């Protein structure tokens, strides 16, 4: 009788934990998505201000090259790499150590980052002329351009330190189920970059210096706030700074052991980007730009929704794995992947159907022609086909990281990069005879599906209680519901019913013509699509979407 009561109590506690974790998970995804959306919007505003003030010439080129150097290194010291290696170990310490030991470990990593990244930044500032002369070699032909790039690079290099320490703060806060502030903090960089550019523009001209320096200095002030504000939030969790540093610590060694394969995996992605750029440059003029513009559109829903689910899931997976509850971990993985399907499959279907008007609204002005819109839209369609698989692979990677296994994602990334390069050569240079740039988008999407499939196969062996087939079946059901919802909206668009409505409104209100008319078509189509998706999804038994709508009210 006692054993039965003990079993019932355990089941009851597990049920309560599951309900609590589900609520925390939904809240975390919503908060992260909203904050990331705000950050992306402020980032777009920053680009618009730079275009307005500095155009696409001398100052813009110098700023981009100067910022690209420290921004490239952030992949190795911050964000994805740090989160994947730090959060699982930190969550495990939260489960099995006292507060004193927990914060001692946190201080050890903080001070290690401070010293190592600080040295890298100092070397970068000192040797900036040499670094810039290699990266921006082509600037030597323009008087003063290399000098401006070097100055900007020295101003912007400390960005690497602030973003690394900010990533440490994000890891601590995410482990405490706090996701909104870390995701929002990048907005400080964007907002203060804009303020610095506007407020000091005349001042720098009066001093005989290029006013783009104001944007760089404003950005650095924003980067400092990007670290400081989350750091203050970490203090509210009980953390207090200590100069403790022990490079022989077993916990630090666990972090570094996970960190290495993650860095290698990220390096492979950078290599793939470089190879893709080189190969695309061999195609017709404009290919690199069309792919770049399309990738930005594809990355918007992937970054807001796919990254949100993956970021919120990592500390949850780590907590459940550390507690030894593989059943709850499998349940959480199932829920996370279902959320990916619910959010990204319908968005993918809608963007694929409305790719051309979406591209027209975002880009078609000035020197961006109708031909550019058509080509970019074609790349968008093929890119967007892979974002469900890309986000799924990210969430599956999180499960591996939580299980202290960073090597499997690394090897899968290695195989995926090799496949991507081979497919680029095959599709773009052999199969396609025109608009060959589309082959790169097709190859990328196929590679995403490859990564997702192999991670599912391997994870199923390591987490036997997880029903891997549920992800595929639920994804297919969501896809059918999305296509049935989007088909009538797409037909209305193709047969000009929606444009005609926008045109009639434009006749009565001239401001609705042109850009605003196209935006209205997209907005009307999206609203109608969401309504139909909710109705058809309910008929298909997709109750999770109905729950999301209810909780958003």
Descriptive keywords:
553 residues, mainly alpha, 23 helices, disordered N terminus
- Residue share in helix: over 70%
Please summarize the sheet with the most strands.
none
Give the N-terminus to C-terminus distance in angstroms.
45 Å
The number of distinct β-strands equals: 0
Characterize the structure shown.
Helices cover 84% and strands 0% of the residues. It has 23 helices and no strands. The longest helix is centred in the first third of the chain and has 53 residues, at 2-54. The relative contact order is 0.09.
How is the secondary structure organized here?
Elements: H1 2-54, H2 58-77, H3 80-96, H4 99-126, H5 128-135, H6 145-156, H7 159-175, H8 180-184, H9 186-199, H10 201-206, H11 212-235, H12 250-280, H13 287-323, H14 326-353, H15 355-363, H16 370-384, H17 387-402, H18 407-431, H19 438-462, H20 469-494, H21 497-508, H22 515-539, H23 543-552
Write a compact overview of the structure shown.
This protein has 553 residues and is mainly α. It has helices at residues 2-54, 58-77, 80-96, 99-126, 128-135, 145-156, 159-175, 180-184, 186-199, 201-206, 212-235, 250-280, 287-323, 326-353, 355-363, 370-384, 387-402, 407-431, 438-462, 469-494, 497-508, 515-539, 543-552. Helix 2 packs across helix 7 (159-175), helix 9 runs antiparallel to helix 11 and helix 14 (326-353) packs antiparallel against helix 16 (370-384).
